[in-house]
Amino acid sequence: MLYHLFQYFQSQGYDFPGVGLMQYISFRVVCSSIVAIVTALVVGKKLIKKLQKKQIGEEIRDLGLEGQLSKKGTPTMGGLIICAAIIVPILLFGDLTNINNILLLLTTVWLGFLGWMDDHIKVFKHNKEGMSGKKKILGQVVLGLVVGVTLCFSSQLGFRAERPAAADEAAVEAAEAMSTNSVIVENNAKTTIPFVKNNEFDYSWLIPFKGKAGECCTWILYVLVIIFIITACSNGSNLTDGMDGLAAGVTAIVGITLGVLAYLSGHVGYASYLNIMYIPASGEIAVYMSALVGALLGFLWYNSFPAQVFMGDTGSLMLGGVVGVAAVLIRKELLLPILCGVYLTESLSVIIQRFYFKYTKKKYGKGVRVFRMSPLHHHFQKADPDAIIQKPEGVHPEAKIVARFWIVSIILAVLTIVTLKIR
Question: pTM score, two decimals?
């Protein structure tokens, strides 16, 4: 709203100090992050008191984890804090006509509501299983379909077809002066691939035939990939949310990285210098990611060990979905296995654990576990002499496990940024 108000002032010829600040993405990035932090702190304090008053707390099953039972009764549904702290600064400082912001807001509201329904069933109906997995996946698939179809048909979501050579400084300077409206963009199923010289991958290469049928199949494949990515990221962050501050800290690091990539992709000068896709409308994603990171930092004030509130599925399903959608919009989805390595590892640990346990139970009559417990972060928190993997030895404190997962996330984030030049 403030962004559009200042745009109106400029169009009407008003010239007072600061009237032009809103046109700078860097300024709005700072403002949105600060407002998000303040919103999270204010909303968090009030919401936690309200949840405690209504005795809306987490029901804990005894799984033999150190310090687990002490969490019983801790308020949940804290994802509402994150949602509010994202939406408020975006409404103030975001360009609400930008299709990227519209899709990211839709993702926040849609998956936030889906997670809230799941938490509602767990808390108020005392059903620990919550919403069925099929319904969750259906909601994620619907969102992925909407995002995928929009990417197929929206003219705002293209990228520049040609760019000046990175070494040509004069061309870069000319490109910086070029307005977004004058840039010729194309909209096809191309994306960024790491460690390859030209740094681009076209999904049409996977289709064995050409022509109209081949083009149609390419877009269908692209939409299916988008659905898979959004669903996988949403469920990955959901599985990562199992310790105080774990999902929030990891996602904040991922959000910072995506914000940097979005800013570089949306700046014609930096995109030309780095020889990456220039996506004219993607700079707004940096503003959204700054709001996301600010919201998570504010939420960590209450969620760090020992947590005063849990985000619940209201937050965890939404966070991964926003990460997946943002990566798709800046055409960096193939970097997610590196950037979201924690999400990926947590998900794989659950898949491996369940598959091997069922396989050994069917074959030998007794199930054998690969990890002491899954998702992976619980493996370090529990002793199980029958598990195949016994390293590292001993039981580790929750705070240390979370801190080390954050460190791993930072390393993966740095590697993701480095892939822009290693090819």
Answer: 0.91
